[in-house]
Amino acid sequence: LLILFVGIWIVSMLYLHKVDLRWLIDSQIAQGLRQSNAQLTDEQRQKAVETALRLSPTVYGAIGASVSSLVVLLLVAVSSLYYTVVSFFTDDGVAFKQWFGLVAWCTLPAVIGIGAQIVNLLVSDARFMPQDALNPLAFGNLLSIDRTGATIVQRILLGIDFTALWSIVLTVLAYQAWTKSSFGKTLAVVLAPWIVIVAIGTAVAFLR
């Protein structure tokens, strides 16, 4: 987890110091307006950008890195709690601390994606690079899929790279080895949260 956190901080700081901050803030405001169907006059929008620019790139980088790190930690903790609850009902004897260690270990392939982002930022002109384009290994970028008008769920799915699939495979193998469960049961336990999350996200996107 510490390795992931350090990587996240490096990416965040590099990006916020290389990107055109005015352009980035204006783009995010425009995207938020499209998603919420809200309206702002050009003067109001310009004022919002000027207000946001009072903070330095370092502050924005620290905020982004802190939030991303907390999200990763929360996801690992929630996943560990989920497997602990499953262990309680299946009586396989694996405790929360052990599940936490396993889930954290299975996230390690994400370091490859972080490394690719760092290289991308170092060799590319990132002044007008969208955040979606940071990871060159993301399936959306590899397939050159236009994200214009995409929902949050669609953006998340397009931002997935092969390291996420690698992590899932590691989790399946580790879960089966630890619990001695059948392959079918292992797949059901490991993939169930992902299926639920995608289903809920898709339903919310359609309801909007």
Explain what this protein looks like in three dimensions.
The chain has 208 residues and is mainly α. The chain has helices spanning 2-18, 21-36, 42-52, 57-90, 96-106, 110-123, 139-142, 152-158, 162-179, 183-207. α1 (2-18) runs antiparallel to α4 (57-90), α1 packs parallel to α6 (110-123) and α4 packs across α5 (96-106). The protein is elongated.
Overall geometry = elongated
What is the N-to-C succession of helices and strands?
A: HHHHHHHHHH
State the low-pLDDT regions, or none: none
The number of E-state strands comes to 0
Percentage of residues in helical conformation: over 70%
How large a portion of the residues is in β-strands, by DSSP E? under 5%
Structural class of the secondary elements?
Answer: mainly alpha
Instruction: State Rg.
Output: 20 Å
Keywords:
208 residues; mainly alpha
What layout of secondary structure does this protein have?
Elements: H1 2-18, H2 21-36, H3 42-52, H4 57-90, H5 96-106, H6 110-123, H7 139-142, H8 152-158, H9 162-179, H10 183-207
Helix pairs in contact: 1-4, 1-6, 2-3, 4-5, 9-10
Could you give a short description of this structure?
This protein has 208 residues and is mostly helical. It has helices spanning 2-18, 21-36, 42-52, 57-90, 96-106, 110-123, 139-142, 152-158, 162-179, 183-207.
